[in-house]
Write a structure and sequence with these properties.
This protein is α/β, with parallel strands linked by helices. The protein has seven helices and four strands, in the order αβααβααβαβα. Strands 1-2-4-3 form a four-stranded parallel β-sheet, with helices on both faces. α6 (100-109) links the parallel β3 and β4.
């Protein structure tokens, strides 16, 4: 957790002509939100995709599997697109699957740091996570 954005910055610094694309969960991005400012300061232009389900879903799956009550895994909905814009990024919040392709097209066409905040329902992929991660 918290690796995707710093890794995208490192990629930019190592090879500025090659654009990085980073995929992260909302909890991982929350761990390094200040790096949104570092990205702009260092003139990096990654595309960051945030899977925003307002939860630490992997931990929640493990808690449910062990029949534990949810503890510390759900949090308030954050609008990461708005937060990123506050740091000088171009950003879009995607709440419908039909809006995902246009957001990716805009991000790919931009020369600036871009973030796509993809709002998802964790219950739609809960069984997949359980099968993959246990």
């Amino acid at each position: 957790m918290g690796f995707a954005l710093p890794a995208a910055i490192a990629s930019c610094l190592a090879d500025p002509k090659r654009r990085a694309v980073a995929f992260t969960g909302d909890g991982g991005l929350m761990m390094c939100l200040g790096e949104l400012g570092t990205t702009i300061q260092e003139q990096c232009a990654p595309v960051v995709v945030v899977f925003n389900d307002s939860a630490l879903t992997l931990i929640g799956v493990k808690q449910r599997r062990r029949r534990l009550a949810p503890a510390g895994v759900d949090f308030v909905d954050a609008d990461f697109a708005q937060i990123a814009r506050g740091f000088g990024w171009e950003a879009w919040r995607v709440e419908r699957s039909d809006d995902l392709r246009p957001a990716f097209e805009r991000a790919a066409a931009s020369s600036r740091a871009t973030l796509i905040d993809v709002v998802i329902d964790p219950m739609e992929y809960d069984a997949q996570i359980l099968a993959l991660r246990g």
